[in-house]
Each structure stands twice: as structure tokens, then as C-alpha cells.
């Protein structure tokens, strides 16, 4: 009976962990997408502000040019995205295969033994509580890295 309860608890724990990983993946994907969209929008706005006449010509097209600047930019962005995703995917897949790992736990263990250890900061040697963003930025710009005289 105890073994049955352990199995049920383990499956519940695994499903909760899977659910948490899915939420984390969705969150990070959303943040990355919004950041990319914001960056692209800001670049377009800066271009429009810098040279409005030529920007308008690029949107509507000019006589004698078969493709507008906007459609050319969208096509270039699509190809660039394809190359970036494919290149990074192949690079990471190559690292995975060169490591000889068969699952993520094994890969994590192998990379952990290969890469330098990050020392624990327990107890913290510097401030960890801040009243707000201004307090944090003031600490980083002025106080961080100074030797504490005790």
C-alpha cells in the first residue's frame, strides 16, 4: 500500500514539475517574442523619424523598382531568422552529440564536470534587499565592489 502511495505522489510531483516547465517555457518564449518585436518596432520608428521621405517611399514603392523597401525588409528578416535559428540549432545539437549525452540529466552532469564551478554565496557577502530600483542602481553604481570596513 505504501508503494502505491509513493507511486501516486511521484506521478503527481512529476506532472507538477512538467506543468511548471511548460509555464516557464511559455513565459520565456513570450518575453523573448515581445522583446524582439519591441526592438524591431523601435528600429522602424527610428528610421521613420530619421528620414521620413525615403521611409514613405520604401513603404509605398517607387516607380521602376519592382519591390518595396518594406517587403524587402520583411523578406530579409525572415531569411535572417531562419539562418539564425538553424545555425544555433545545429551548433547546440553538435555540442549535445559531441558530449555523448543521451538525456538532459546526463548532459547537465557532463557539462557540470567540464565547466568551472560557481562558488556558493551563502551567507551573502553584499546587500540583497533594496527599497526600489533607484536604491539598487545607486548601490551598483556607487557601493558595489568596495571593501567593507568592519
TrEMBL record:
<dbReference type="Pfam" id="PF07096">
    <property type="entry name" value="DUF1358"/>
</dbReference>
<dbReference type="GO" id="GO:0005743">
    <property type="term" value="C:mitochondrial inner membrane"/>
</dbReference>
<protein>
    <recommendedName>
        <fullName>Transmembrane protein 242</fullName>
    </recommendedName>
</protein>
<keyword id="KW-0999">Mitochondrion inner membrane</keyword>
<keyword id="KW-0472">Membrane</keyword>
<keyword id="KW-0496">Mitochondrion</keyword>
<dbReference type="InterPro" id="IPR009792">
    <property type="entry name" value="TMEM242"/>
</dbReference>
<feature type="transmembrane region" description="Helical">
    <location>
        <begin position="72"/>
        <end position="96"/>
    </location>
</feature>
<keyword id="KW-1133">Transmembrane helix</keyword>
<comment type="function">
    <text>Scaffold protein that participates in the c-ring assembly of mitochondrial ATP synthase (F(1)F(0) ATP synthase or complex V) by facilitating the membrane insertion and oligomer formation of the subunit c/ATP5MC3. Participates in the incorporation of the c-ring into vestigial complexes. Additionally influences the incorporation of subunits MT-ATP6, MT-ATP8, ATP5MJ, and ATP5MK in the ATP synthase.</text>
</comment>
<keyword id="KW-0812">Transmembrane</keyword>
<feature type="transmembrane region" description="Helical">
    <location>
        <begin position="22"/>
        <end position="45"/>
    </location>
</feature>
<comment type="similarity">
    <text>Belongs to the TMEM242 family.</text>
</comment>
Amino acid at each position: 500500500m505504501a508503494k502505491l502511495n509513493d507511486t501516486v505522489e511521484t506521478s503527481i510531483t512529476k506532472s507538477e514539475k512538467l506543468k511548471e516547465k511548460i509555464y516557464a517555457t511559455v513565459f520565456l518564449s513570450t518575453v523573448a517574442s515581445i522583446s524582439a518585436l519591441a526592438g524591431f518596432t523601435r528600429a522602424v520608428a527610428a528610421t521613420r523619424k530619421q528620414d521620413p521621405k525615403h521611409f514613405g517611399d520604401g513603404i509605398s514603392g517607387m516607380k521602376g523598382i519592382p519591390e518595396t523597401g518594406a517587403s524587402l525588409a520583411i523578406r530579409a528578416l525572415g531569411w535572417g531568422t531562419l539562418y539564425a535559428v538553424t545555425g544555433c540549432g545545429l551548433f547546440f545539437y553538435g555540442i549535445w552529440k559531441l558530449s555523448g549525452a543521451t538525456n538532459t540529466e546526463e548532459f547537465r552532469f557532463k557539462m557540470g564536470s567540464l565547466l568551472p564551478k560557481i562558488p556558493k554565496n551563502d551567507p551573502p557577502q553584499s546587500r540583497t534587499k533594496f527599497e526600489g530600483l533607484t536604491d539598487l542602481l545607486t548601490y551598483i553604481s556607487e557601493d558595489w565592489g568596495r571593501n567593507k570596513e568592519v
